[in-house]
Amino acid sequence: MNKKLRRSSKDRSLAGVCGGIAEYFGMSSFGVRLIFIFIPGNFLIYIILANIIADSPASLQGDT
Length: 64
Hints:
The protein is mainly alpha-helical and 64 residues long. The chain has helices at 17-25, 29-37, 42-52.
């Protein structure tokens, strides 16, 4: 299976970055958000990731 890192379309608070990372690694999005809080420069990193990670297409929204 060829998984790709994409922003989540169903688990999103702002842009779906943390939800997409959680889906890719198979972990809780709450845990990813907690980790993200403690990263220095987290706002800048989030903005960059929101712009470079592709959005999940409509056909993949139901896939897990």
